Amino acid sequence: MKRRVLVTGLGSFWGGRVAQALEADPNVETIVGLDTTEPTVELERTEYVRVDANYSILSRIVKATQVDTIVHTFLVVDPTQMSSRAMHEINVIGTMNLFAAASAAGSTVRSVVVKSATLVYGCAPEDPTWFTEEMTSSRRLSSPVERSLDAVEGYVRDFAEDNPHVSVSLLRFANVIGQEIVTPLTRALELPVVPSLFGFDPRFQFVHEDDVIRAILFVLNNNLAGVYNVAGDGLLPWTEVASICGKRTIPMSPIATGAFLWPWKRLGLIDLPDEYLALLRYGRGADNSRLKHAGFHYEYTSAQAVQAFIEAVRLRQAVGDHRPIYRYENDVEQFFRHSPAVVRDQAPAT
Amino acid sequence: MAPRQPANRADGSRSSAPTRQPTKATKAPPRRTTTTRTPVQPRKGGELVHLPTAAPPAEAPKPEVRLSDVDEWGRSEHMRSFVRKAYDPVYRYWFRAEWDGLDKIPTEGGALLVANHAGAIPSDAPVIMHGIETELGRPVYGLADNFFRKAPVVGTLWSRAGGVAAHPDNAYRLLREQKQLVLVFPEGTKGPSKTYNERYRLRRFGRGGFVEIAMRAGVPIIPIAVVGAEESMPILMRLPSVAKALGIPYVPVTANMLAFGPLGALAYFPAKFKLRVLDPVHFDVEPNKERYSRSKIMDESEAIRERIQAALFEMLRERQSVWFG
Q1: Same domain, B41 and B162
Q2: Who contacts B93 (Cβ-Cβ below 8 Å, separation ≥6)?
Q3: Shortest Cα distance, chain B CAs vs residue A83, angstroms
C-alpha cells in the first residue's frame, strides 16, 4: 500500500528536506505539508497548507487527507530564533493538537515520527559520558527549550500508550551540523575566534544534516517504533572542533558568563543561550548504538560532520551562495500541480 | 555503468575527493547497481540540495579527520605520556614506590582496581595509575567525584590524564565493553578528608556500588593496599565552613602548609610508598543483570574492605620508618 504522509513544519529546514526526500520515494503517494510560512525549497508534488502555529485546523486536514503517516519536524530546538512563549506555542501546543487530531475517532494514522533533540537529557556534571535512550536528565531541566521538548516527549509517550496500533518513533538528534543548517553552534564556529569557557574543554557530539534526513526516512521505511538517539560516532573536545574549523578558541569567564556575553549578544555577535553554555562546560554524548543495531548506517562521524560544515563555509566564503534562490509562488505551484495543461507521468529525463 | 557517473556526482555526495572517485568506481562496479540505492531514489537532475539515500553509501568511507587523540572519556595518550615523563622522578625518587604482587593485575581484560584513599590531595591515585601504566603498559582510568567536572583547568587536566567522572554507566562501559582497567576509591572523599589521627582506618565503602558494577560487568575486583599516602600530606584540621562557601568537598589545613608555607598546598612529604596487590575477587554471579542481591553486595563490599584493612595493618607492622619503609 502506498503511503500518504503529513509533514509538519514544511517551511522549516527539516520539513522541506524531508518532503523532498519523500517525493523521491515512489512508495509515497501523497505528501501534505503544513506550516505557518511558505516552503523554502523546491517541491514537486507536496501539497502545502498554511496553518496557524498551533495547528487548530489539524483534525480537519487529517480527516480530509486520510494520511497514514505523520512526520513531526515542526519543533523548535534553537531558542535564539524566538521568544520562549512562541516556542512553547509551537512545540507544546502544536504537538498537543497534532496528537489530538491523530488520535481522533476514525483516524487513519498508523505511524508517527517525531524529531526531538538530545537537549532533553539536559547537561549537568552528574551526567554519564553517554546517554542511552532510557536515561533521563540528571537534574531538573531548567531552560525553556529543554522543558518544552520534554513536554513534547511526554505527549509522544502518552500518544504511543493510548494508540498501541500506531508505530511511534521518537528520534533524539545530537547537535546538527552540515552544509546548510544554522544553529547557535554553527554561528559560534563561523566567528573569527570561537568562544569557549576558560578552563573547560568538554566533548561534543555532532550529527550531519544528511544523516538526520536519512535517519527519519530509515525509521519510516522500516517502521521502527521506539526512542532512538541519532548522533555521529565519537566525541570531540571543543578545542578540536575549533581546530578542525581552522580556528582558535577565546576563553570567556566561566563565572557570570551571561553578564560577560550580554554586550556581545546585544551586538548580535555571540548568542549562546544557557543550554549551550552548559554544553560548553560539560558537553554531552548520546549513545547511537540502538539505531545502528536496527541497521542504520551513519555517513558521517562527529568529526567528519564538522569537516563537511567547514568545507561548505569555505566554499560559501569564496563564491557566495552558489545554489539558486527559491521563492514559493502559490500560483506557479498550483499550476504545476493541478493544471490540465501540465503533462504528468512523463518518463524521467536523465 | 558509465552514464551513471555524472548523475551520481550531481547529487552532491562526496565533494571532498572528486579526483579519486572514478578509480573507486571502476574498481568496484557491481556495488553501484541501482538495487543498493533503494528504497529512496535521488531525484532527477538540478537538485537544490543533496538528497540523501537511506541505503548505505556505496563509496569508500571518508577519511577520519580527528586532530587530537582525546578519547570519548577525555583521556589523551599524548597528555598521559607527557604526565608520565614529568611524574616519573616523583614516583621513582620522591615516593620511591614499591609494588608487591603486581602480577595479580591482568595484562588484558577488564578489572576494577579498588584501593584505600588518603592525603589531602590524594597522592595514591597518580602513583597507582603511573605504576601500572609504566609497569604493565596498559592504561588505567581513574574514577572520581564529579566535582572535577565542575572545576575549571584542574578538571580538564584531570580528564586528559585519565580521570573519568564516577557514574555507574561510565564504569560499566569501560569495564564491560572496552575491557579496561578502572581504578576506584570506594571511600570517596571520606578517605582523603580524614585527619591524621585517623590514618589507615578505612572509612565506609560507600553503598557497595563498586561491587555491583563489577558484578554487572562480569569483571574481577583487585584490591590494592597503599601505605605512604597518609603521611605524604597529612590533614591536621578541616575548615568545613570555608569548604561550604567555596562549594568544594573539603578544605584541609595540612602539615605541609605549616612546613612549606603556601607551597605546602601542593608539595608532598617524601613518604615511602608501598603498594600491595591482593588476590583478585571473582563473583560467581551472572553478569548484565538488572539488579543483584543487596545483602550479597554489602557482604562482598565489607569483605573487601576488611581484607584491605588487614593488609594495611600488616604492612604497617612491618614498616620500620615512614620515610624509608
Answers
A1: no
A2: none
A3: 30
Residue A281 lies in a domain: yes
- Considering B11, B33, B65, which residue would you say is the last residue of a domain? B65
Contact assessment for residue B235 and residue B196, using Cβ atoms and an 8 Å cutoff: yes
The CA distance from B31 to the nearest CA of chain A, in Å, is: 16
pLDDT band at A348 (very low <50, low <70, confident <90, very high): low
Q: What is the pLDDT of residue A139?
A: 92
pLDDT value at residue A260: 87
What is this model's ipTM? Answer: 0.88
Is the domain of B26 the same as that of B98? no
Q: For residue B155, which residues of chain A lie inside 8 Å, CB to CB?
A: 199-200
Domain containing B43 equals 1-65
A304–B41 C-beta distance less than 8 A: no
Structural contact between residues A208 and A305, judged by C-beta atoms closer than 8 angstroms: yes
What would the mean pLDDT of A290-296 be, rounded to a whole number? Answer: 96
Tell whether B61 and B82 lie within a shared domain.
Answer: no
What whole-number distance in Å separates Cα of residue A237 and Cα of residue A242?
9
**Residue B69 is which amino acid?**
D
A324, B48: Cβ pair inside 8 Å? yes
Contact A234 B72 (CB under 8 A): yes
Whether B70 is in a domain gets the answer: no
CB < 8 Å to B165, chain A: 125-129
Interface of A with B in 64-103 (CB under 8 A): none
pLDDT, tens digit, for every residue of A185-224? 999 999 999 999 999 999 999 999 999 999 999 999 999 9
- Assigned domain for A128 exists: yes
- Residue A345, in any domain of the structure: no
- Looking at residue A347, its pLDDT comes to 57
Smallest CA–CA distance, residue B61 to chain A, in Å, is 8
Half-sphere exposure of B15 (CA within 13 A, CB side): 13
CB B10 within 8 A of CB B47: yes
Q: Nearest CA to CA, how far is B213 from chain A (Å)?
A: 14
Q: Look up the CATH number of the domain holding residue B200.
A: 3.40.1130.10
Among B44, B65, B86, the domain-final residue is: B65
Say if the Cβ atoms of B73 and A217 lie within 8 Å.
Answer: no
- Domain co-membership, B169 together with B45: no
Question: Do the domain assignments include residue A342?
Answer: no
Domain region containing A168:
3-337
Nearest CA in chain A to B14: A308
| Cβ-defined contact of B40 to A25 (cutoff 8 Å) | yes
Question: How do residues A305-345 score in pLDDT, each as one tens digit?
Answer: 999 999 999 999 998 876 767 778 888 888 888 888 887 76
Question: Does one domain contain both B262 and B125?
Answer: yes
Q: How many domains does chain A have?
A: 1
Q: Which of residues 161-200 of A touch B (CB under 8 A)?
A: 179-180, 197-200
Mean pLDDT over B243-262 rounds to 90
- Within a domain: B323: no
DSSP A130-194: SB-TT---SS---SHHHHHHHHHHHHHHHHHHH-TTSEEEEEEE-EEESSS---HHHHHHHSSSE
CATH of the domain at A260: 3.40.50.720
Instruction: Give the H or E element holding residue B168.
Output: helix B168-172
pLDDT range class, residue B58, cuts 50, 70, 90? low
